[in-house]
Specification:
Elements lengths: L1 E6 L4 H12 L3 E6 L4 H11 L3 E6 L6 H4 L4 E5 L5 E2 L3 H7 L4 E8 L9 E8 L5 H26 L15 E2 L5 H4 L8 H9 L7 E5 L2 E6 L2 E3 L9 E5 L2 E5 L4 E4 L1 E4 L11 E2 H7 L27 E6 L2 E6 L8 H15 L5 E8 L8 H6 L3 H20 L5 E7 L2 E2 L1 H7 L3 E5 L3 E3 L13 H9 L1 H10 L3 E2 H7 L4 E3 L6 H13 L4 H18 L2 H16 L5 H10 L18
Parallel strand pairs: 1-2, 1-3, 3-4, 5-8, 18-19, 19-20, 20-22, 21-23, 22-25
Antiparallel strand pairs: 4-6, 6-7, 9-10, 10-15, 11-14, 12-13, 13-14, 15-16, 17-18, 23-24
Length: 570
């Protein structure tokens, strides 16, 4: 079937719908609604689709499009739920059960007949994590069901006038509803409020006399202070006291001042340091413990634990981006893990993002972005090289969520790649105007062959977990829900450590690495990649700089291609 996707941004859900429909052998085109009504009309005329699907849409379709074509809208709410802030309301009201509905476009917002609806349980996670996990799983299941029903020709969508559907209109969830009462709200209330706005739009608050948006929230069970007081920093995050405890806030975004460029999220401690009153603020920098005692509730973005012969090095960086400092801390943690007596080391294993490579926001905010990018590249290359040179145990990369660019190549440095079926991989750099690093010219061709590596990096399209497995990017698919991923990884890793021929596999790995090093040393791959990257980064006229600036500010760059990458709306 010829299908046209219309999306306000080619975000994670739009990418997954694109990839999964393509896996079903549908011919899929994409147009960004942000390019305007005329662009949407032109795409419809050119593609002449049998079906139009909007996986993420912030603006209405042109009347002449939905009136003359069957257009299906993906709404992140159960049947009858209407309005632009469905997930915000669900999290604010503490919903434990929610859903995704695929409905037909009509004049009234979210009022069309229902083609498919899939419910899901709501775990205690942030909105963006929920969006990329349970919402994405339910949305794809609903879209594929709706497409099958449409293709069959016999299904009649259910009007929302049906008495079984309870219609509820929910207004836009404004910042006034997100306010935290630091003197009165409990820690649980503060966390729920923060998590409902963790990626977009953030929670507007005041720190050091400046309005800022708070992004993300994690509990702290030991630190205490006056409600609202800043208590400490750790690994870029800040800790703030509540009425009955404290919370960690990983990222901040200054509110835009008139005439200033659009600000963007970055590590909270660095934003605090840039505020005018920051020099008068002396916060202790707490160490980030790798191993925590049972029952401890505190935030750290890198953790290690061991179960028998298996080590688990988990990490979770906001947005999947890895700054210079984060790469260096993860490398130190990796070396710590190598010092432990294990035969299998699992890298990753958490739900949500695995990694998206270097931290473009931190780079954009640096006094010298090119120098910061260069340092970031060396730091992530050091990490990938350490994984590639590990020859005394098997390393498993466990991808519970999406990975892109250098994050994919970090995974490919491992001996085995395990991937949750809901993940989407973007094994390319081209849409940021970059050649790429992280030893990809070694790891990608050895996995998929030179021809496929060339196609993946030049086409620059998202790849579903299923397709990634067929190509050889992924060794094991884990068909589990996001909440079950960590337990499934532990079960399988324990089994891997117990196989009879594990020592033989490790010895074969060591011999293969020695042969590859003799044929062409890793240092040569790194030198060649960095030469190409340096020529881009230190060229002030290279397209990468405008692409990076537009990306972090969520603004379409001039002349953007239809399939430009975009942050998630959740």
């Amino acid at each position: 079937m010829d299908i046209l996707l219309v999306a306000s941004a080619f975000n994670s859900l739009a990418q997954r719908v694109y990839a999964e429909l393509s896996d079903q052998e549908h011919r899929v085109d994409v147009v960004l609604a942000s390019h305007g009504a005329d662009a949407m009309r032109a795409a419809v005329r050119q593609a002449r689709p049998e079906l139009i699907i909007a996986p993420m849409l912030k603006t209405a379709l042109p009347d002449d499009v939905w009136q003359h074509h069957t257009c299906l809208i993906v709404h992140p709410g159960p049947p009858g739920d209407r309005g632009p802030s469905s997930l915000d309301w669900a999290l604010a009201e503490g919903a434990t059960r929610w859903g995704v509905t695929v409905l037909q476009a009509e004049a009234a917002m979210d009022a069309g007949a229902v083609w498919a609806a899939v419910p899901f349980d709501v775990p205690p996670v942030g909105k963006s994590d929920l969006y990329r996990g349970e919402v994405s799983d339910a949305a794809v299941a609903a879209v594929l069901l709706a497409v099958r029903r449409y293709a069959g020709g016999a299904f009649k969508p259910q009007p929302q006038s049906d008495p079984s559907i309870r219609v509820v209109w929910r207004d836009y969830f404004r910042q006034e509803r997100r306010r935290i009462d630091w003197d009165g709200d409990t820690t649980d209330t503060v966390l729920r409020t923060l998590r409902a706005a963790d990626s977009q739009p953030g929670l507007l608050d005041e720190l050091l006399g400046r309005e800022v948006f708070l992004h993300g929230g994690h509990p702290e069970d030991e630190l205490r202070g006056r409600p609202g007081e800043l208590l400490a920093t750790r690994a870029g995050a800040v800790c703030r006291a509540t009425r009955d405890g404290a919370v960690w806030i990983p990222e901040l975004r200054p509110r835009r001042a008139s005439g200033d460029p659009a600000p963007f999220r970055r590590p909270a401690a660095s934003v605090l340091a840039s505020l005018r009153a920051a020099p008068r603020l002396a916060l202790p920098e707490l160490p980030a413990p790798l191993e925590l005692p049972p029952g401890r509730r505190t935030w750290t973005d890198i953790r290690y634990r061991q179960r028998g012969d298996v080590g688990f090095l988990t990490f979770s960086f906001p947005g999947g981006a890895m700054s210079t400092g984060q790469c260096r801390r993860l490398l130190a943690a990796y070396r710590y893990a190598l010092a432990r007596p294990t035969s299998v080391l699992v890298l990753g294993g958490s739900r949500d993002f695995f990694s998206n490579g270097i931290h473009l926001n931190v780079i954009e905010a640096a006094p010298d972005p090119a120098a910061e990018a260069w340092a970031n590249l060396h730091a992530i290359d050091d990490l990938v090289e350490a994984v590639l040179r590990t020859t005394d145990r098997l390393v498993v990369a466990a991808l519970g969520g999406n990975a892109a660019a250098g994050g994919v190549m970090l995974a490919l440095a491992a001996d085995e790649v395990w991937c949750r079926t809901g993940a989407v991989l973007n094994p390319h750099y081209r849409r940021m105007g970059l050649f790429g690093s992280e030893y990809w010219t070694y790891t990608l061709p050895r996995r998929v062959g030179a021809g496929t590596a060339e196609r993946l990096t030049t086409e620059a399209l998202p790849v579903s977990a299923t397709s990634a497995a067929a190509l050889g990017l992924v060794d094991r698919l884990l068909p589990v829900a996001a909440q079950e991923f960590a337990a499934e990884v532990e079960r399988r890793a324990t089994g891997l450590a117990a196989v009879a021929d594990l020592d033989r596999r490790i010895a074969a790995k060591r011999a293969r690495r020695a042969r590859d090093e003799s044929a062409r040393p890793l240092a040569q791959y790194r030198e060649a990649e960095l030469a190409r990257m340096g020529a881009i980064l230190f060229d002030p006229h290279a397209p990468h700089h405008a692409l990076r600036s537009a990306f972090v500010r969520k603004a379409p760059p001039a002349g953007a291609r239809p399939l430009a990458p975009a942050p998630d709306p959740g």
